[in-house]
Structures are given as C-alpha cells and as structure tokens.
Amino acid sequence: MDIQRDLLALAIYFIILIGLLVRFRHKKLRYFSMWTGIFLVLYFCAIEIQKKTFFILIPLLFFSLFCFFYFKEKCRLRNGWLLNLFLISFMGYVGLVTATSSSLIGAGILAVLLILFLVTILFGLYAAIIFLIGNSFIVLRHESRKLPNLLTLILGLAIIALIILQSFGPKILPNWSVILLSIPTTIAVYFFIVFWNFLSISLLYQFNHPKYNQDFIIVLGAGLINGEKVTPLLAKRIDRAIQFYRKQSEETLSPPQLLMSGGQGADEKVPESQAMREYALEQGIPAEDILMEAQSTNTLENMRFSKEIMEREKPSGYHAIFTSNNYHIFRAGMYAEDVGLKIDGIGSKTARYYLPNAFLREFIAVALMNKRLHLFICGLITLGFVALAVINYFFVG
C-alpha cells in the first residue's frame, strides 16, 4: 500500500471537511456529502492517471445518467435504478482499485461495507421482524386499527410465514414440489428490490431545497376532524408552507401565495381548503395571500386543478412548489409531473414511529400505479418455477 499517499489524502480531506463544517454550520450534511463525493472522485482519478487506466468512467457514466434524468424529472422511479446502478458500479470499482492499487482508503470503504453486509446477513431478517412487529404495536397504540395502520404488522407476519414455509416445506412435500416453494421467496425478493429502489429515490427527494423565488405554494389537503377542522397531520403541511412563506418574505420581501387545495368529502361539512384557509389566517397569514382550490378529491386532482388556478393567476409564467408530509411528497411529485407541473415538493415532519407504515403505504400506492408490469413479472416467475417442477416430476423424480 502507498501509505504516505493515502495518509496525505486523508489529512487534506479532514482539514477541508472541518473547515466546511465550521463555515456552514446549518447545512452540515449537505456539505459533508458534497465534499466527500468530490474528494473520492479526485482521489480515484489521481490513481487512474498514475496507472493510465479509465475504469472510473463506468461509475461516472451511471452517475451522469442519474443526474441528467433526476434534474430533468425528479419524481421518476428510473432515477432510483440509475442511482443504485451507480452505487453498485462504484463499489465494484472501489474493489478493483483496492485489489490492483493497494488503496488504503478503498480498503477502508470495503471493510465498512463488508461489516454492514455481514451484520445484515446474520441479523437483518430477524431484526426486521422484531422491528416491524414492535413498530406495529406502537402505531396501534397511537393510531386507529384501520388496515393502512396494520401494514408493518402484516409484513412482519408474512416474513415469519415465509420462513416457516421454507423451513418445514421441504420436510413434508414431495421432492418435485419443493421447487414451487421458491415462487413466494423469489417474488418477495423481487418486491424487496423494487421497494429498495422506491425507498432510495424517495429519501433522496426529501433533500429538496427550492429557491426563495416562488409565486405559489400548493398545500395538499387531507381529512378534517369532525368534518370542519384540520387534523394535526394536515396542520403540519400548512405549517411547513407557512415556514417557507415567512422565510421567503424575509429573504426577498416578496411572499408567495398559499394555494390551499382540497375539496369537500362526503363526510365533511366544509371543503378542506376552507378549513385550511381558516387555519392559516389564525397563524397570521394575510387573506390576500391565500387562494383556494375546492374541487379536488385526490392528489392527482389537487395538482390538475391547482395548475389551472396558477395559470389563470399568472398566465405569463410562475414558480411554484407544494407541501405535504415527507413520506408523501415523492408520489405527489409523480402526479404533478403527470399533469405537466414542473414543481418540487417540500415535506413536513411525520412522527418517527409512523414512518415505516407510511412508506409501506406509499410503496403499495406507487406499485399499484405499475401493477401490470409487476403482475407480468410475478407471472413469469411463477410459470418458470412451475415449468421446473413439471420437468422435475416427469424426467427427474
């Protein structure tokens, strides 16, 4: 190993990192991530130049594709695939450099990844079961016993059932039929990969930082208490919009208008947008800075009807963002792009105990948007293992 080279590189890295963290105290994570990424690229490029190789172009290609498509349309699942392809190719590249160039930094990265991998293999599945079932009891203690609040419990029990099936199935079933036990396992692995893709890009989308030059902030509606008052969940969405409203007012002296979006449900006494408007007025927002959209019944209509109002108010063009709960903004952004709105979302905080359940619910909703593709792939998996079982029965068994 070229220890002197790597120790010098690490010293430079930490000196600049400490300087950035001291200089930018309020955005530590952003500057830590940016500088770490820049440092690794420069470090590995220096090794490539020294060895006269160009392998780093492979992960950089995936990263470039990810950046191109992400900043073109942020709320697309393909961005998650490109991001994960970049991470996989980069880890493979680090492994290659470590093996061929005796990189101390590369070895450190691989060691950390290896430890995480081993911990995941040894304890991950059982830790997931304990976490999911434990979390479900916390959710049920704070929330109603409706199906959407039982998702972590259902998933935990499903994993237990799958483990039991794989453990005892081969002992009681004929040899040829054991192959069929691979169907639920393979489908579960497929949906885990799809979920990981959704979760990675959804979490990345949380780091939106829109500019303080907005004309409108769309606030997405939700249910009302007793059909007339905003719920704590909906209040957080409005509070997040008000926070941005006040920050932009301080920065530019030109506040945006809050566009409350939500119609009147069958069990509601007033439109959601009206209750939201009253809440914002109580928080000190001037009436002239509040608009209402009271026709929508779902998120897609929130975006479509809000777009019509904004185009009517500012036909020459406008800048806008939307607010919702942090777990919901990615899917809401997908609907915004579907109706031709090029806007970003900012999320309000959600109780930590509810986040696993909330992200599972969002994943199911997003998966149903592509249900034909998922049904086709699950069908291929099933047909493939059934064919193997038939072959085993007639020609092997």
From TrEMBL:
Family matches, as Gene3D superfamilies: HUPs (3.40.50.620)
Pfam family, one: DUF218
A GO CC term assigned to this protein in UniProt: plasma membrane
Keyword set includes Transmembrane helix: yes
Residue ranges of the TM segments: 6-24, 31-49, 55-71, 80-99, 105-138, 150-169, 175-199, 373-395
Keywords: Membrane, Transmembrane, Transmembrane helix
Biological processes per GO annotation: Gram-negative-bacterium-type cell wall biogenesis; peptidoglycan metabolic process
DUF218 domain ranges (all copies): 215-364
Coiled coil: none
PANTHER family assigned to the protein according to its UniProt record, in alphabetical order: INNER MEMBRANE PROTEIN, PROBABLE PERMEASE, MEMBRANE PROTEIN
Protein name (Swiss-Prot/TrEMBL): DUF218 domain-containing protein
